[in-house]
Amino acid sequence: GLMGPHGHQQGGEENMTKVILTAVIAVGLVSGAFAQVTPQVDMGTKEIQGSGSLVGDTPSGDAFALRLGYGYFVRDQLQVSVVGGIEDDDISTAWQLGVATQYNVLPYGWGPWVPYVGAALLAVGTDFSQGDSQTTAGLRFSGGMKYFLHDHVALGLQAAWDYAFDDVFMDEGGNLNDNQWKLLFGIHVYYD
């Protein structure tokens, strides 16, 4: 349970994440049992994707990330896309723009669940609140799971690792690094 003996919350943020993930999985299992979904990852399909994260109370203030993309399936399950993103906190604002590819796996019998792996080539930049800015090239490797609510709409959870050829990523302690991890929740819309 979330509540202690006197009604105090125990480790709120971590427990909330567990509750949300449990709810998503439960909804998925229940709706998966009743719905025959055909994930639209066929050649010629187009996709609009958006994902993001919000982490409150970091040492550099509230931190948010937003990523958008437009993709096209050049073959069944294989997509190429244009991607962009912005990340912001009290110390810096960072952006990414690039091209990506993603392979969607369709395991037999998984129904609406579609795991995927991806990679991207990016231009990345960071503008710091004290006035400096840096721009460089970078790579992103990602993997995740999509859950198709409908043939053309999926929710997703993605883990992404970004690597830059210069120190442009600000960590929570205010230090610059050449890499970062992000966990993002997203929505994917597919159409012909």
Overall average pLDDT = 87
Order of helices and strands: HEEEEEEEEEE
| Main pleated sheet | 8 strands, antiparallel, barrel
Classification by helices and strands: mainly beta
The amount of helix comes to 10-25%
Strand order of the largest sheet: 1-2-3-4-5-6-7-10
What ranges have pLDDT less than 50 throughout 5 or more consecutive residues?
Answer: none
> How many distinct helices?
1
Shape: globular
Q: What integer value in Å does the Rg equal?
A: 18 Å
Beta-strand fraction estimate: over 45%
In terms of quaternary structure, the protein is: single chain
Measured distance between first and last alpha carbons: 45 Å
Total E-strand runs: 10
Concise overview:
This protein has 1 helix and 10 strands.
Any overview of this molecule?
The chain is mainly beta and 192 residues long. It is built from one helix and ten strands, in the order αββββββββββ. It has an eight-stranded antiparallel barrel with strand order 1-2-3-4-5-6-7-10. It has a two-stranded antiparallel sheet with strand order 8-9. A hairpin with a 4-residue loop joins strand 5 and strand 6 (133-150). The longest helix has 23 residues, at 12-34. The chain is globular and about 55 Å long.
